[in-house]
DNA sequence: TAGATTGTTAATCGATTAACAATC
DNA sequence: TAGATTGTTAATCGATTAACAATC
């Protein structure tokens, strides 16, 4: 349906990149149609979820065939804004910030870097690929002049909040926080956390729970195991 | 309550690192008690959510005082397994993989790297910090020998699925996928996506929606704006 | 004591899944 | 035509928020 300026539910937005990359592969393989059941199997969703998700987009599936892969790629790209260019700055020129600056995928997906900033006098002026590292004091000037929308926080946690404040003050519209800490921004600035350390902790936690469940399962002599197996199958 | 091997709801697990880093700061500032309302204000949750979340942990709040910050840090660390060491390998020695290998935060939080792998003959053998880059063929041997639990996928999307298969075959227990694509793993292997490009797209999407909403709001002469403002305040 | 704060139950909200008529 | 598949409504599930008795 895709009514203008109606924000899609967050879980849907988070699934769109998965559909996009996967269906793009299908088109590359010359597969012209894909059904909700196939997508569900391939991506680990249910077919209901797939149909609900895609019903938000401006395309129609076809009975007995499914969705046209080429069209699907096009409308998801359009919905995600994958065809428009976004302007960003990176604050923090440590390993992570530099990796972001040099990572080809950013530019390839329309995210153009307009500056790499740091506060360490030792490295200011140093070249990182095409960028020369600039002082954080220059942030505001660059953001204004280049109409930068997005700021990446790639500094150590103790400095993250101050960097966020500087970005907000510079007039940034959205922040991606890569630092392992909570940062606060006023509610007219969008803030999304992408903290791989938190993801790693979540992963380690999930692994531990699996192990414990397995152990418990092995130790406990389940009286009704037959029934349970039926339920699981 | 913290009943053994009972997995906490995912949203709770994802909030725990936020509580942890924030309350850790409070302890460092010598603040001994914090209430659910204070935590809610500081982290952007509701006090109900805070109390619900913390009720899963093995600690008791105190009427009129709240939660003891030191104890809170301890039980969250324990629940997250932040005090145990985790063994990982990194596959892909591009900018991102190398940044992960060199990032001090990993080791500081108990994630120990046991190898950095790549398939490019040009860079195999090269030193990256203390690691020398090894061929992906050596993956299985290292994972078995060092009892590695976690694998990081830091290769370009076209190679990601094959790397995932190799990690699974090597007997890894969990995978953190940093590549911008969907990868599949058998259900006894935990897989978590940490794709900053997807996060950036989500951010850009949210920014666009805000803009559009603002424009719509400015253009449409809302007849009931008075009432609406009351609701918002 | 009075008032603030917890822990927990109940109500609300939103997302996922199931079901099925409409369609090709 | 018969059967597979969509789009959508209804049912289920789970998470968040509200409310309030118990507590210090």
Major sheet description of chain A = 6 strands, parallel
Strand order of the largest sheet of chain A: 7-4-3-8-9-10
Number of helices of chain A: 10
**Largest interface summary:** A-B, 71 and 71 residues
Please compute the radius of gyration of chain A using only Cα atoms.
23 Å
Question: Which residues of chain A form runs of ≥5 with pLDDT under 50?
Answer: 221-233
The secondary-structure class of chain A comes to alpha/beta
Q: What portion of residues of chain A belong to β-strands?
A: 15-25%
Helix content of chain A: 40-55%
Distance between the termini of chain A: 37 Å
Q: What number is the mean pLDDT of chain A?
A: 91
Run of helices and strands of chain A: HEHHEHEHHEEEEHEHEEHH
The total strand number of chain A stands at: 10
From the spread of the alpha carbons, the general shape of chain A counts as globular
Oligomeric state: homodimer
What can you see in these coordinates?
The structure is a homodimer of 233-residue chains. By secondary structure, chain A is an alpha/beta fold. In chain A, 49% of the residues lie in helices and 15% in strands. Chain A has helices spanning 10-28, 36-43, 47-55, 69-80, 95-102, 104-108, 139-146, 157-170, 196-219, 225-232; strands spanning 33-34, 67-68, 86-91, 111-118, 127-128, 131-132, 134-135, 150-153, 174-177, 190-193. In chain A, the strands form three sheets. Chain A has a six-stranded parallel β-sheet, with helices on both faces. In chain A, α1 packs across α4 and α2 (36-43) crosses α3. Chains A and B meet through α1, α5, β9 and α9 of A and α1, α5, β9 and α9 of B. The structure holds a DNA duplex (24 and 24 nucleotides).
